[in-house]
Specification:
The complex is a heterotrimer of chains A (about 290), B (about 850) and C (about 170). Chain A has about 290 residues and is α+β, with helices and mostly antiparallel strands. Helix content of chain A is about 30%, strand content about 25%. Chain A contains 11 helices and 14 strands. In chain A, strands 4-5-10-6-7 form a 5-stranded antiparallel β-sheet. In chain A, strands 11-12-13-14 form a 4-stranded antiparallel β-sheet, sandwiched between helices. Chain B is an alpha+beta fold and about 850 residues long. Chain B has an 8-stranded mixed β-sheet. A 6-stranded mixed β-sheet of chain B has the order 7-15-14-13-8-30. In chain B, a hairpin with a 7-residue loop joins strand 13 and strand 14. In chain B, helix 17 packs across helix 18. The longest helix of chain B has 28 residues. Chain B is globular, with a radius of gyration of 28 Å. Chain C contains 6 helices and 5 strands. Chain C has a 5-stranded mixed β-sheet, covered by helices on one side. The chains are: A alpha+beta (about 290), B alpha+beta (about 850), C alpha+beta (about 170). Chains B and C meet through helix 1, helix 4 and helix 20 of B and helix 1, helix 2, helix 3, helix 4 and helix 5 of C.
Amino acid sequence: MLLASVDYTRPATVPEALEALASREGAAPLAGGQSLVNVLKNRVASVELLVDISRLEELRSIEASEGSLEIGACVTYDEIDRSPEIRAGHEIVSRVASHIEDQQIRNRGTIGGNCCLSDPTNNLPPLLIALGATMNIQSGSGLRQVAADEFFRGYFLTAVEPGEILRSISIPALGEGAGAGYSTLSVASDSKAIVRAAALVRGNGTIDEARVALAVVGPVPIRHSGMEEALRGGAATADAAREAAEAIGEDLEPIADAHGSTEYRRQMARVVARRAVDEAIARGGENG
Amino acid sequence: MSAPSAPSAPSAETVVAPVEPGERLGKWSGKSVPRTEDRRLLKGQGEFTDDVWMHRQGYAHFARSPHGHAKILSIDTSRALSLDGVHAVLTGEEAKEMCEVPFFQIAPEPAGRLEEWPLAVDKVRYHGDAVAVVLAESRDVARDAAELVEVEYEPLPVVVDTVAAADPDAPLLHDEAGTNVAWHGVFDYGDIDWALENADHVVKIDRLHFHRFSSTPLECNAAVVNWDPGTGVVDVKSNNQMPMFASMVIGPTLGVASNKLQFASQDIGGAFGNKIGSYPQIAALALLSRKAGRPAKWTEYRQEHMLTAGHGNERTFLDIEVPVLKDGTILGFKVRAFDDAGAYLHYEPLGAVIWSQVTPGCYRLKHIQVDYTETLTNKCPTIPNRGYSRLQHLWLIERIVDTVARELDFDPVEVRKQNYVQPDDYPYETPSGCVYDSGDLPRSLEVALELIDVKGWRARQRELGTGSGKRIGIGIGSTLDSGTNNFGQARIINPDLPFSGNGEAAYVKLDLYGEINVDIGTTPQGQGHETTAGQVVADVLGVEPSAVNVSAGFDQRHNTYVAFSGTYASQFAVTGLGAVLGGAEMLRREIVTLAAFALEADEDEIEVEGGACHVRGDPERAIPFIGIANLAFSNNAVLTPELRERISLNCRYVYTPPFTVPDPETKTGELTLTYASQIHAAAVEIDEETGRLEILDYVAVDDCGRVINPQIVEGQVQGAAALGIGAALYEAFEYDADGLLQQSSFYDYHALTALDMPMMKYADIESPSPFTPNGAKGMGEGGGAPLSTLCSAIQDALGDGDALVADSHNPWFRIHELLGGGADGAPRAVRVESR
Amino acid sequence: MSDAGMVHPITVTINGERYARTVQARKLLVHFIRDELALKGTHIGCDTGNCGACSIIVNGKLIKSCMMLAVQADGATIETIEGLEAEGELTPVQRAFHEHHGLQCGYCTPGMVMSATYLLRGNPDPSEEEIRRAIRGNICRCTGYVNIVRSVKAAAGAGEPAAADRAEASR
């Protein structure tokens, strides 16, 4: 398919990019383009100016210090997969990135794009929510921070306002006794997600803190406070996880489509949430 | 009998070869000669249709209906025409005015009255129906302009359910036909009433449903069409896989004689039957070219392909009754079948008879009654899809056999072996008069089960028990690949159609410098015709295959052809190679005649070997092929008048199968010449919590008679298996209540990937056909065996529950539902009446 | 309305040859390669980045050229299927596909060969799982991937030997 007419600019710096984005309505940042180009082919969005930020070195760095990470928005999935720093402190982030679509898409697609083109089936958003990540948003007037669980606002809608870009994503250290888990039920071996869950569990025998994020159960990934509360203070066991997952129910109203009914997705949300928590508990001692 | 090939062996090993030595098979036929085609394709030097470029060409883009069914109130092309770079816009009404007659219809009255034109006229009948086509200087501008074609629609009620469409009160698609029923007839073989009355048990199944999908070749449809204003020649470079059928349909519509409608293609990026259906677009492009005075180039977009290029037949089976004897003998079955043709009849309603090539499947069923209705619905027109019309029927029979085994407590393996056509039954005449030529189905099944170690999986299944969260299931699919159609079966659909028989043509020539050049009427799409034709000719003429030049692709200007030419319906090994073999033998006789003349020897003393002829026992008395060519082409005064008259070294041979005309009254006849078989077996594991299925082991045992090129045959089996596995688990075209297609890209329509496909096992049994010149049988389509196999495996994994695997498409949620006992509140779908 | 949008000068080096052209921003890299430069070996099968028939290597990275704008490739060094062979010889990957019948219609083949080539550059001895993951973004509708996986294994030197008669018949 073919795009509608569009203008293009490739600024040399972040401030120039912000200026270009503010210059006219219908300006949009283009990074790896692995979602946006498809959107443009479908001619569903009215983009008039593409601001190519994919080569901005300021957005392409990975910083690690004392277990925490700051990943530039234009770092590709493949770079995340292969980064020794990320593999060391947040193996799960590398692993999830390594399962995004295919090698070609991982070579172009960026973590920023995965978040900003907020499709409910995207891989990284639920994980970033579970890990308590912070989204660093840059505008002409400065940098502001938004927690990952408040970043996603709707289909293709995020906390990034016109004239802003997502600059980087900060992921805190997992810390002592914490583990993370991730589970997806997908069409076929690893195609489109039917439902996803990510979890972070902290504690030693007893769960002190639990964060459970679910995706493809609504327009945006969400934290499931009911399941989190059910886990908190309980034993870090598979049985406890199973019981806590029962908290997922009528509160969710996932869409029905060719891959499952609303009720099937609800049930599967329980399954993948439990599996993610099981993994988080198991990895607790291994630092994620 | 030798042992089956090892599971991991890459090539076919002959397991059984119980027939007389195939004297026609020589040094090269029967060997895995690497393909001639590969080199250009591996280097990116193939020529696919989008690679074709014509001087002054414009790019075409179709404007298509966003509705499932709507009246066209008005079309305004002025905004589109005002765009810079737009050459022309053609609407349905204009197209109709430029045409002589609507497209020819196969259906009898009343459905035969329906009128189809190159573009929709007055109303659109499905999501994606083409209302206009734009020609512009670039692809981009063509799309921009197509979006500016303003169409005012008045939506009409839609009907997307096959069975509901037959209701006289259903929304009517074609007013001129006055009915949505494209065809109805009862196929009544044996005496089903007697069988039902005299059976010990009657197994009744309320409903089975075979879903809509297609093979979605990776290259979409494409054509570059030029209506030359000077000569009136319409040049069609396209990837249509049955160009002579296309020519017969659109020639009269366009008012163009056959010698002015010139089809050509070189490389085709997969077709699987789906590319029979591009003739309406080609006709529209011809008219667009005529109007614009420029060549029109069109390459279908994937979305367009999914919406409009043709889907496989969806079929609903109702009120199935199966008479069974105490000892496990299945007497036959009775069923009401509703087949969904979509909005127009493209090649349909031939599907209404094609299935009866395999009326009893692999079994000795005698009493079969099929009440068959094909309906028009507001969906994409169906088009032959690998296994066309037989795979639905074979799936029905395999579901019946599994259900009988389960309900009556027979072993699914034993009940199959017992009811299969037996090795000494061949040639076996089926109730519909078809003759199964050869085979060994029980042995094929045994080999399949050995290769996946079925005993090991059964033990594992018991061991897992309950509580593990996993289920193991073992499934079998027994299918036939009927090849080489007798087009006389069209008369069973419409007795007035003057069609019968089949055939293919080939030229085999000794050219000016003694080269061996071959042209065939086929349009290969990966089947390796250049290679296998070379093998056959090499054997006849005593040369290496590399010394045989087979033209790449098809070009009506120089290739020979008959009306049935093309590549479809599993027939190349018989018709195509039959023609090549006949042509090569003619040429050999001419070469021998000239050699005998030149060497002053008797013809029976001449040996043909290594590109030369010599007198037996005297290699010095020899003449090379170039010398033979010289005599015929440039030195003919030395010949006798009789030889000059008779010898051309240009040998055209038309292979025609020995068919007679079927009987439309009884709906019987020899509908196909050969019957290859594929027996598949699989072990699967199902995750109880999610319904997710994983294939643990998978095998196909193929028997297609004499194999010309084992690795090509194995590749065909693997490819057909993959498409079947994909269809069984992932691939479906579904419409919502408004008639809108839900899967129109590879995001929604999951074409299986390398991660989804197991390293399947393969074995080969060779039961040569007594009916073909080379003992080969047509193959390649397969009978959709994976659909039967995986449904059988899922059913097996369900154990003793009530749930019936009643749909051919089983995504995770459906398997999960079956594990839970089936859809909520659904009545038990199977009943047994015993006496 | 016209087919406006700014045009942008770009320079790319494809298979060692330098091309300087102007393109509209909306032009996909694959259309630039096929329609403007007439390099027809890079194919289009899906329009949505699912099928991988348009896979090429840009600055050493395997990408899908239908998912990148031509203007984004400005300054890039690109390899396409046409650039793989050296002096008319097939590469080991291409040869393995030929010997193991790793292609039928040949339409997915250029993309498949590019993906296999990219894999083996970074991982000369891949497992079957790694091979399958490496070609997961390349759809083939003809082969069921069985012989493609075998071909890539063979190209890596770890494959099963071709059947004896294939060697004998080798041309």
